[in-house]
Amino acid sequence: MRAGRRSDGLPVRQAGAPRTDWTEAQAREIHDLPFPELLHRAQSVHRLHFDPAVVETATLLSIKTGGCPEDCGYCSQSARYETGVKAGKLMEVESVLAEARRAKAGGATRFCMGAAWRSPKDRDLDAVCAMIEGVKSLGMETCVTLGMLTPSQAGRLAAAGLDYYNHNIDTSRAFYPEIITTRTLDDRLETLANVRAGGIKVCCGGIVGMGETTGDRVSMLVTLATLERHPESVPLNMWNEIAGTPVAKKARAAEPIAFVRLVALARILMPASVVRLSAGRHAMSDELQALCFLAGANSIFTGDVLLTTGNPGRDKDADLLGRLGLRAASPAMSPSP
Ligand code: SAM
Ligand code: DTB
Ligand code: SF4
Description:
38% of the residues lie in helices and 14% in strands. It is α/β, with parallel strands linked by helices.
């Protein structure tokens, strides 16, 4: 079945909510299909929910960089590792809004603000809420990623009009303690539940290529696909090597075809979610990105930097999307709650 598609890229919903009872065995079976069969299935599912020629564009800004007390073994912003990232203070609201205006002028429809915190202090939230209100008033969607949240903090962000909260599970339950010891996967899931209860849409994904097995990668996606409600937005980050971090000492980036398989699996398991090609695009060839779009990825971060690392610039992305005949989405591409 190919449902009628809308020219603005809005999803076309199938009747009924997507499945949330996937098992790891079922997911692994799909993951291991012959590549043409896997891509065919991913593309068929993609077309039921989205216009496959439309890609959402979001721009990131690090509003508070470095000095983070957590020990995430991949991260440039942990205070525990010598990565060359200098710790800064929370940015002023006006400077953030100036960056949001630049992102909007560059075509981004969503503005994502990230802070290197374990969790925000209540007084920090005053400024973050003012940023959210300011960005919303520009007509952009808002997303923030601030670490762990209490229910009342989620409520404050929701009241400020926040659209999305990004909080990644990052890897499988089994591999999690190899990468992060200062919090657990269950801590992450608790924040996600608080975000949901506050009525904010969830952006949650992970990293591929930190030394995890294929089974860990599949398991990470099954954790997301068996949440009571799928995240509306699923960022897949290709591990970005940061010198000085523990992960950089032992991991090797994911093999490209393995990454595409994971994109396709995310698309099939969470058919109505936006799947974002996140970190690591600057190290991906045009051909690899094209395969990811064919496998169901339909969102990218645009702009020269992510939080602390590089990203292909807007011109390069516009050129690639142009050659692929893909176009940027108009606002509000993902399903509303
Ligand atoms: N402190 C908040 C938190 O941890 O949720 C927000 C910022 S944190 C940098 C957001 C996400 O960026 C991480 O969960 C991780 O998935 C991703 N990330 C960070 N460093 C990365 C790297 N070197 N390679 C790939 N992804 C990375
Ligand atoms: C996500 O999954 N990826 C983005 C966003 N959510 C916050 C962050 C990527 C960070 C890459 C490393 C850096 O630039 O520091
Ligand atoms: Fe801190 Fe987030 Fe980096 Fe972990 S991923 S060290 S919580 S900024």
